[in-house]
Design a protein that fits this description.
It contains 4 helices and no strands. Helix content is 77%, strand content 0%. It has one domain. With 117 residues, the chain is mainly α. Helix 2 runs antiparallel to helix 4.
Length: 117
């Protein structure tokens, strides 16, 4: 499931960077602009999903939260909010890596031109 999530995240970030590249017309020299766009895109999606996880574990299916508590080692400290925080941190780390990979895959290969005197 994590691999599937990473693929979806990667494709979403790649699409966001491609669209920004089309609109702005910037080249690879603007690496940090691409990185900021992809991290903002990821932040919106990950924050929304983390809020959903907190609401789901607290309001929709609290029985599932109890099952997770019995299985995990953090049982007395694991709450819906801390579970959502863990999901957020993991997702943000994944988006950092996926952003970098997407930017590297989208850059044009450069060929050194000979310098004429």
């Amino acid at each position: 499931m994590r691999a599937f999530n990473a693929i979806i995240l990667f494709l979403t970030l790649k699409t966001a960077i491609s669209e920004y590249k089309k609109i702005s017309g910037e080249g690879y020299e603007e690496f940090f602009n691409y990185f900021k766009i992809s991290m903002r895109t990821a932040l919106i999606g990950i924050a929304g999903f983390a809020v959903f996880v907190a609401i789901y574990l607290d309001q929709i299916d609290p029985v599932f939260m109890e099952e997770v508590r019995t299985v995990e080692n953090l049982s007395p400290y694991l709450t819906p909010v801390t579970a959502a925080g863990i999901v957020f941190i993991e997702g943000f780390g994944s988006s950092f890596l996926c952003s970098y990979l997407a930017i590297q895959l989208l850059k044009r290969s450069t060929i050194e031109k000979p310098v004429e005197p």
